[in-house]
Amino acid sequence: MKIRAITCFCQPGWPVNRLLLEQMGIFARHARAEFERAGYKVQGLRLATTPPGEWLPPEALPEAATSAVIDAHANGFEFTALGPILPGQDAYYAQVLPILAQNPGSFITASLTTAQGELSFQAARQAAEIICQLSTLETNGFANLRFSALANVAAYAPFFPSAYAAQAQPAFGLALQAADLANQAFENAPTLLDARDALVRGIEAHAAELLRVAENLARIYRYRFTGLDFTLAPHPEDGYSIANALQNLGLPVFGLHGSTLAAAFLTDTLDRARYPRCGFNGLMLPVLEDSSLAAASALGVLSTQNLLLNSAVCGTGLDVVPLPGDTTAEQIYPLLLDLGALALRLNKPLTARLMPIPGKKAGESTAFNFEYFANASILPLSAEPLTGLLAAGQNLPIGSRTPGANLSD
Asked: Pairing between strand 147-151 and 118-120?
């Protein structure tokens, strides 16, 4: 198991508070040393801010973003997440492309939902347009790696690009790369209950050690520790495929019927483990980051529909999903509405990081030369433009379905 990221949270202010970022850099480097001394490899140090609309006018965002990213990088942070554009903050969307073009270490997101439990149709439309525009910004549509649509995602999720802070005060959390724990627990388990117990024991043992280090750091620096995100993030190497872990339970290929049961089993198991939580703590199914998911895409058993179906019982939504290069914003818009509706109705956080690949059609393979990607087949998108009431720019309240509720109520 590795630590994908030590994610620090703050509001850098404008002009940027360089002393604050210097202090957070000192903390982050110390934290890395302490976790590595405890036996955990740390992949990266990351910084996430509060939503930009809470501390910057839109016209100041490009300059402030560049300054924050440069200063953060100078203090050891490889990447900076600038937080979500919130519904109703339309003027900020015009700044997304220039920010991501000028700052390769920057991430930014768009929230499809409001704090009042509403789905913003306008935010979904604007996010869909940004996804299409970003697809031509870098080779192979790579810029969309740094943009995501969020639905019902709370602050302090440590995984990028979803990370953002709710308050200016410094805090930190851990994003964990732990798909290997599921592979080890499931590989030779005699029963499902044994597999469950083995994974719970493994998670709790690591959580206790991680918590010991984190709480000591929090006492020294007086930074709030927000918790652990044990979303079982994969990596495209042997033993780190979460789809392979589920296949170890007896699933022939992830994407076939039986996948939803396997996904529900895994996330129910995570729910049984005891540790301080932040973020998603579910099943992450990033098509381009998981070698077994990439192989399943080549077999034609994956689609955005069944990935969303599995998100209903587990995961983080639609992550690094390769789509045809000619996909339009009018086709992405209904997909984002589906995602937002699912997140609100089930009261869970979901995201969409979609990657239209220029010049590629459904069924063709991606051609990334990136150590964190496994090349996969382009997934078809079964979507056409919406019309009528579903095309209107509205905020639609969607209540959550509480367990045991009477449908006639």
From this structure: unpaired
Triad 183, 46, 61: Cα angle to 5°: 135
3-state helix, strand, coil in the chain (%, to 5): 45, 20, 40
pLDDT band at 195 (very low <50, low <70, confident <90, very high): very high
Mean predicted lDDT score pLDDT of the chain:
94
Distance CA 1, CA 39 (A): 10
- Residue 402 neighbours by CB under 8 Å, 6+ apart: none
C-alpha dihedral sign at 345, 348, 349, 352: negative
Residue type, 53: G
Task: Return the structure tokens found at 240.
Answer: 């780190």
What span, in angstroms and rounded, lies between the C-alpha atoms of 21 and 304? Answer: 39
Cα dist from 258 to 244, 251, 254, whole Å: 14, 7, 8
Tell me the three-class secondary structure of 299-356, residue by residue: CCCCCHHHHHHHHCCCCCEEEEEEEECCCCHHHHHHHHHHHHHHHHHCCCCEEEEEEE
**DSSP for residue 273:** S
Does the pLDDT of residue 407 top 80, yes or no? no
CA gap 135, 152 in Å, rounded: 25
> Around Cβ 222, how many Cβ atoms within 10 Å?
8
Q: What is the model's pTM?
A: 0.95
How far are the Cα atoms of 80, 143, 215, 304, 336 from residue 332, in angstroms, in the given order?
26, 17, 42, 11, 6
1-18 tens-digit pLDDT = 999 999 999 999 999 999
Identify the burial level of 133 via C-beta atoms within 10 angstroms of its C-beta, where 0-12 means exposed, 13-18 middle and 19 or more buried.
Answer: middle
pLDDT of residue 406: 43
Per-residue confidence (pLDDT) for residue 402, from 0 to 100: 66
